Amino acid sequence: MPEKTLKEKTAKGLMWGTISNGAQLVLGTLFGIFLARILSPSDYGMVGLLTVFSQIASVLQDSGFRTALANRREIVHEDYNAVFWFNVGTSCVMYLLLFFLAPLITEFYQHSDAAANQDLSELTPLARFSFLGFVIASLGTAHYAYLFRTLQVKQKAIITVISLTTSSTIGLTMALKGYAYWGLATQGIAFTTCNTILFWYFSKWRPTLPVSFHPLKEMFGFSSKLLANDICNNINGNILSVMLGRFYAVHDVGLYNQANKWTSMVSTMVLGTIKDVAQPVLRNVETERERHKRVFRKMLRFNAFMVFPALFGLALISRELILITVTEKWLDCVPLMQILCAGAFTVPIQYLCANLVITKERSDLVLWNTVGMGLTQISAIFFSYPYGIHTMVCVYTAINIAWLTIWFYFVHREIGLRLWEAVLDLFPYAALAALAMVVTAFVTSPIENIYLLLGLKIFIAALLYGGLMWLFGSVTFKECISYLLNKKRAR
């Protein structure tokens, strides 16, 4: 792919990724506020208890073949077709298995001191209903891979916005009708269904019969490592909910999930701006070591430019945000949110590092790195749970931050990027974002009206951060502004 074309596709992908995730942030926030006002922490906790099981099942039915499709140098119809039918068949088998295991999941959570005074009788039917989501999702995995591989970011942005609006409306309506956590579960099913339908609409590819599974053999060595890696990632991301559900009350799970939802919304927004372009773009330059390193560092700086002010800003306004949006009943989640904000910047950076290693066809390195981090997290959380929820979240966050050094070690092995170079790419944005937030907190400290305080914090922090970026001559900042103003193409 020519240099100019690659830059244009990357810039366009980043632009549509930003638009899409900005829209998701706005819509998700608005609908999330209404739902949180209607529902209780226990309602969110009931759904949160099942998240890890449904996500692992979803990963198993995909088996890493979707990413393998995107990473193949040459691809034909038979490749998509084999993955499609394999995913559909596997998801049906997984659903039947989980359908009969649902009572055991309920029993796992009931056998704890915290569950003694809780009614978990509806957890089994809720699980059986929620698990339908990954069966429906399997019908669109190959189509998603087609859109992903061809960098159709605009179409994916449209799909996400439509699906989010439709499913959130359904969930909100059911919550208003008194269906509580059933509304949250239905919202998830509706989102997946809309996604799948629209993937088919926008994708040109269609499955056919008969089917040959021979292409899967060629992809298995690569995809099997990604499968194990994705399972570990899902366990790592949901281990706190599982541990809280086992040792604490459902109410506490709901508080954590609410805090994690706000934090994840921000980190996912940043991740989404690069998610649809990182692997295809890095794949196109992986044969040129210096260019590979240059493109990676540019994406790393863009990540830092976006994620640090967003998360530090969320921590700054967390108390006012919770009080105004979802009311005082959720106030206990504020300290958890602030702790999570300190470490959530690692999510898009880890994703970027993993994708770089994957483009070098070293999915084994990604797997063992993820396994190591997961085992460390599980061990640390298990030994820290007697000291309280806040200690568990602090330990979890600290491990995520420290593990970046391991990720950058693997990046160094593949493209020669030294740790100090990565730190130089990240630190200025983190330092300037933190400075902007500290100054904002000091300036606004005398203000007591929470509405005025929230507005001023956002305005002053954004003004200060933008001013600091301009003062210190941030190239990333100038390129983003120039691209948005159509004065020059993004480089």
Short description:
By secondary structure, the chain is an all-alpha fold. The chain has 22 helices and no strands. The two termini are 15 Å apart.
Features of the shown structure:
cell membrane, 2 domains, 491 residues, Polysaccharide biosynthesis protein, mainly alpha, disordered C terminus
Topology summary:
Blueprint: H1 3-38, H2 41-48, H3 51-62, H4 65-71, H5 77-110, H6 123-130, H7 132-138, H8 141-149, H9 153-176, H10 181-202, H11 214-247, H12 250-275, H13 278-284, H14 289-325, H15 334-343, H16 346-359, H17 363-384, H18 389-402, H19 404-415, H20 419-444, H21 450-471, H22 475-484
Helix pairs in contact: 1-9, 1-12, 2-12, 3-5, 3-7, 3-11, 4-8, 4-11, 5-6, 5-7, 5-8, 5-11, 7-10, 8-10, 9-10, 11-12, 11-17, 12-14, 12-15, 12-16, 13-16, 14-15, 14-16, 14-20, 14-21, 15-18, 16-19, 17-18, 20-21
